[in-house]
Amino acid sequence: MSNVIVIGGGPAGMICAGKAAAEGNNVILIEKNEKLGKKLFITGKGRCNFTSNCEVEEIFDNVVHNKKFLYSSIYNFTNKDTIEFFNKLGLKEKVERGGRVFPESDKSSDVIKALDKYVKQNGVKVMLKTEVASIFYEEGRVNGVELKDGTRLAAEKVVVATGGLTYSQTGSTGDGYKFAEEAGHRINEIEGALIPLETKESFVKDLQGLSLKNVSVSLYEGKKLKETTFGEMIFTHFGVSGPMILSLSSRMKKNKKYSIKIDLKAALDNDTLDRRIVRDFEKNSNKILKNSMDDLLPQRLIPIIIRLSGIKEDKIVNQISKEERLKLVQTLKGMELEITSKAHLDLGIITAGGVDTKEINPQTMESKKVPGLYFAGEVIDVDALTGGFNLQIAFSTGYLAGTDFK
Ligand SMILES: Cc1cc2nc3c(=O)[nH]c(=O)nc-3n(C[C@H](O)[C@H](O)[C@H](O)COP(=O)(O)OP(=O)(O)OC[C@H]3O[C@@H](n4cnc5c(N)ncnc54)[C@H](O)[C@@H]3O)c2cc1C
To answer: Measured by CB atoms within 10 angstroms of the end CB, which terminus of the chain is less buried, N or C?
Structure first.
C-alpha cells in the first residue's frame, strides 16, 4: 500500500484516484475548484460525449498527435471498457451519429456523478478548494505535494492530472506544465486545438450566430485542398466555429496560409442548383434580386452572397445575365473565407502540446525522469478529434496511471 496523491479532479484524475484506491492504496484527490469535473460538465454541450463505440483500432485514426504513445493505455482500458465501467456504476449509454456515445439521460452531470461514486466507493479522500502549488522530491524521487497554503502532504506517488490550458475558467490553467518543467520534463509547444477560426472578411460579424446545417466546408492550404467535411458550422463575430470547423482546425499547421470554401448547397451539383435558380428567377422575374432568394438562403446571407457574386443587389431578376447567374451558383457552391489565425487559445476545446510523450513510460504513465511522478489526461502532449476521443484518452491514461504494477 502506498500513499498516492492525484492532482486534478477532472475525468483523468477521478478515474485514476478511484482505480489507485481500488488497488488498495491510500489515495488523496486534490481539486482546486469547489467541485469535481467542472470542465466535464460543459462537454458535449452539457451532454458529454464520453467515448466512441467505434472499433478500438479506429480510435488511433482520430488521434492527432502521438497516437503510438497511447497504444498501451487504450488497449489496457478501451472504449468498450469505458462503457462497461459506467454501466457498472449505473450509467446507461446511447449511441448517436458517428458512433458518439452519450449518457442516456443526456446529462453530463450523470457522468460526473458516476465518477464521483467510483471515487467515493473506493475510499478516496477528496480535497476540494485545495490548490497544489508544487511537487517536492527527495533523493531524486517524488516525496509529496505542497499546497498553496504551505501545507505539505507526503506521498510515494503523485499523479499530475491537471488538464490543459483552455477554457481556463474551468480550472485548467496549465499548472501541470509548470510541475512537469520543474521536474525536468520538456513541454512541447502549447496550442489551442479543436478551435474556432478567425477570418479576414469582417462581414462575418453581420452573420454572428447564424448556424448552417448540411453544408460542406473545404479547407485549403494555399491552393491545395486538405480536407472536405459535411455537417454544421456557425458564424461568430470574428470568424467561424462549429463541429466541422473545430475538426478542420486540427489539420492546420503553423506558418501556412489557409482558406475555407463553404458549399452552401452541398446536396445539389452545379447544374441542378442552376436549374433551381432559373425556376426561382422565373417565379420572381419582376422582383429585385435580394427579394427573390428567400427560398434559397437564410435572410442574413442574401446580401452577402449577392455582393460576393459581384451582382448589384437591387438588380431586377429578369435583367440578370446568364454569366451573373453562373457566378451566383459558383459563390453558393464555394463561399470563400480567408483564415487569418486560430482563435485565442482559451477557446480551444483541447490543448495540443504538453508534456513530451518521449519522457513518459507509455506502459505505466510514470515519468522516465523522476520515479513516483505520473501524468494522465490532457496535460500530456496528445490530442484527438471530436467524437469522444479526448475523454477516452483521459480515461485510458488515468486508469493506467492509477494501476499498480509493483
Ligand atoms: C466546451 C468543451 C466541450 C468538450 N466536449 C467534449 C466531448 O464531448 N467529448 C470529449 O471527448 N471531450 C470533450 N472535451 C474535452 C475534454 O473535456 C477534455 O479533454 C478533458 O476534460 C480532459 O480531462 P483532464 O482530466 O485531463 O483535465 P480537466 O478536465 O481539465 O481537469 C483538470 C482538473 O485539474 C484541476 N487542477 C488544475 N490545476 C490544479 C492544481 N494546481 N491544484 C488542484 N487542482 C488543479 C482543474 O481545476 C481541473 O478540474 C470538451 C472540452 C470543452 C472545453
So the answer is: C
